[in-house]
Amino acid sequence: MTKPMNPHLVLALAMALPGAGHVAVRDATRGLAFAFFVVFFSVVTYMTTPPDRSFLGRHAGGLFVWALSIPDAYRRARIRTVIAGKS
Asked: Which of 32, 36, 38, 45 could serve as a FRET partner for 22 with CA atoms 20 to 30 Å apart?
């Protein structure tokens, strides 16, 4: 078994790009699903909000999903690190 990636690096990747943290911990399906839903909910929120809203307001749905994916990627990396340390 290979050494798991540093959870802090995974955290930085997850903050930089939606789904990148999950891909880094070899959970690409989950990472791509998060990336898809970030884009999907950004578009849905953009289409349903009035034009006078701020950028954050117009993309709030996607940003919310992205915010949920960050601690999830970190938690998965941390769990893999702890499990690798016990082996």
From this structure: 45
Q: Taking 80 as the threshold, does the pLDDT of residue 1 lie above it?
A: no
Closest C-alpha among 34, 32, 36, 40 to residue 61:
40
Tokens 């943290």 correspond to 21
Spatial contact of 18 and 34, defined as CB atoms under 8 Å apart: yes
Question: In this predicted model, what pLDDT tens digit does every residue of 36-67 receive, in sequence order?
Answer: 999 999 999 999 999 999 999 999 999 999 99
In the three-class reduction of DSSP (H, G, I as helix; E, B as strand; rest coil), residue 75 is classed as: helix
- Answer for the pair 8, 78: CB distance below 8 angstroms, yes or no: no
This prediction has a pTM of 0.90
